[in-house]
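Q: Could you write out the predicted structure for this multi-component system? I'm mainly interested in how the pieces pack against one another.
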Amino acid sequence: MKPVIEVKGVHKSFKTVKAVRGIDLCINEGQFLALLGPNGAGKTTLVEMIEGIQKPDKGEILIMGKKWKGNENELHQLIGLSLQETYYTDKLTVLETLKLFASFYNLPVERCLEIMDIIRLTEKRKAYVVNLSGGQRQRLSLGIALLSNPKILLLDEPTTGLDPLARREVWEILLDLKKKSNTSMILTTHYMEEAEQLCDYIVIIDNGEILKEGTLKQLLEDNNGENIVNFTLEEVHISPELLIGNKRFNIQWDAVTGRGEVVLSQLENELPEFLGFLHTNNLRIKHLECQRKTLDDLFTSLTGRHLHE
Amino acid sequence: MNSFFRYKQLLQLIITNFKEIVREPGVLFWGILFPILMSVGLGLAFTQKVNVVRKVAIIEEKSSSALHHDSISLKQYFQDASLAARDTVVDGTAGFTYTLLNDKLGNTTFIFLKTNWDNAMIWLKQGYVNVIMKETNGKVDYHFDPANSDAKLSYILLSGSNDKENADQIKPLTLSGTRYIDFLIPGLIAMGIMMSCMWGLSYSMIEKRSKKLLRRMVATPMKKSHFLIGMITVRVGMNFVESFLLFIFAAFAFDIRIQGNLPALFTIFIAGNIAFSGIAIFMSSRTSKTEIGNGLINAVVMPMMILSGIFFSYHNFPDWGIMIIQKLPLTMVADGIRSIFIEGGGFAEIAVSSLILTTIGIVFFVTGLKIFKWH
C-alpha cells in the first residue's frame, strides 16, 4: 500500500533554534498518528511543513507521492487542517464562516449543514464566532477542516486549552470519523491521553527528534512491561537507608510524605519477592497500588522531564 | 475549474467582507458620521460670521500725576468707535471693552486689560493676549509679533478702527464655490478615500495575518487574487457610499453643488481608490504586528493629511515644496475632485492625475503582491 504521507530526513532551523532535526515519518491510508511531545518539541514546525506552510531546509515531504512545489492546488484539495490558533472573523456566524470556506472547495450549502450536524453546532448556526466558547470554536475549526471530506487531516493541538468535557466532545467527533471514513490523520498533542484514545500510532518527539515510536502497546511493552508500585507503610519512622540503599530493588522513598515507589518488570515473580523483603524487615504495608507505566512515565524515563513541563 | 465556481468564490468573499465591515458599529461612525461631523464643525467655524473676542494688554503712561486721567485719554482714542467703551473687569484685572460693529465681517469685541510691561509680556508668552498697546507721550505703540497673522489682524483692526472710509469697499464672498466649505468638502472626500483604504484595507489585512486567518485561508484552494479583489471591491464600494452621503449632506446643509463633469468626477474617484488600495496592499504586505501596522499607516497618512491641502491651501508653502506636494497622491485626488466641484472642470483637468494615480496603484499593488506574506 502506498503511503499517504512520507517525511524523509526533514530538517528545519529558525534563527536561533533547530526546530526539527532529521525526522522520518510514514502514514498509511486510514491511519491516525499522534505526534506527542512537550511544548517546543518541534511538533508544530513539522506539521506546518507537511501542510506546505513552511519549507524544510533539508529532506523531502511527499503527499500521495507528490511534492508541494508545483502541486499546491491539488494538495490543498486533499488536505483538511486546523492550525494551533486561528481566530475566525468575529462578526460572521458559524454558518457564514462555513459557507465561505465551502465556496473555496466549491461545495454546496447542504455540506455546511451536514458539517454543523457533525460538529454539533447546528443550534449555534446563527451565533457570531466571537460569541462561541473555546470548545465550540475548536469544533468549528475542526468542521472547516472536515468540510471537503479530506483524505488527509492535519490537526495541530486541537484540544489545547479546553476543559475535559469539551476535549471529549472533540475526541468523539474524531473517533466517529475514524469509524466512518478512511481519512488519514496526524494530530499533535501534549496530552498522552489524547494520543492513547485517538491514535493507532504514536510518535514521541522532543527537541526536534523522534525519541520513540510505535503503537501504544509496542511503546509500553517495549519498556519490558514495567509496572510502577506505589506504597505507604504502617511504620512512620524508618531509616531511609533500609529502602534507598537496597540493591535488589530500585526503591524511591520520600520520607516527608511517607510514600515509596518501586519499578517492577515482572509483577508475578517480583511482587511476592518485594513483599517478602518488606516482611523480612518488619515493615507492614498500609497501602499498595500497582499501575501500568504510562506514556508520561515513558517520556520521563526518556528525557527526565514530564510531558507538561 | 469552471468560471462559475470562481465567480461563486469571489461573490462569497465579497459578501463576507461586506458583512464583516457593516457589522462593526464603529464603521458607521468613523466612516460616515465622522466626516459629516467634521464638515459641520469646520464648515460652521469658517463660514459663519461670528463675534470674535480679542484681548489686548494696555500699558498706560506713568505720568505720576493723573493715572485716571490717562486711562480716559486711551478711551478717547476710540471715541469714534461704534459702541462706546465700557469699563469691565476680567479675571480680576480692570479694563474696558469696546466693540467694532461690522455686519459684513462680523463684530469684534476688544477687551483692553490694564497692566504693566512685565505682566503684559507674560500674557503674550502665554498667548492670553497677542498685542500690547503702550502709551508713550500721548501716542500709542503696538507691540506684537508680525509673523503672527492673528496679532497682525488685531493690529489692523485696532489701528484702523476709527477710519471707516474703507469699510464700504469690502465685498464678502458669498458666491457658491468660493466659500471655505466649498474648498473643504472635496478635500474631506479625498481624505476619506485615503483613510478608508489605508485603515480599512491595511489594518484589517494585518489583523487577519496576526490572527492566522490569512494562513488558514491560503491553506485551501482559494485563489489569492480573489481574496484581495474581494476586499478591495468592498472597500471601494464603502468609499463610494461614504463619499456620497457626505456630499448629500453638504448639498443640503451648505448648498454645495458639483459644477463640473460627473463622469470625470467618477474617474478621479476610482483612480484615487486604485492608488490608495495599491498603497494599502503594499503597506500591509509583510508585517503581522498591528502595532507596526499602526505606525506604517500613520507614516503614510499623516504627512499627506498635513501637506496635501485638505483643510487649508498648500499655496503658502515655498515654491519647491509645492512642487513636491502637488505630486502626492492625496493632493492629486483632492485637487482633482476640487477642480470638478468648484472650478467646473472636466476630463482635461483630471486626465493626467487619474493616469498617474492608477499607475501608482498598480505598481504598489503588484509589488506588494510579490512580497506578500500569507503565512
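A: Regarding packing and overall arrangement: Chain B touches chain A through 23 residues (CB under 8 Å).
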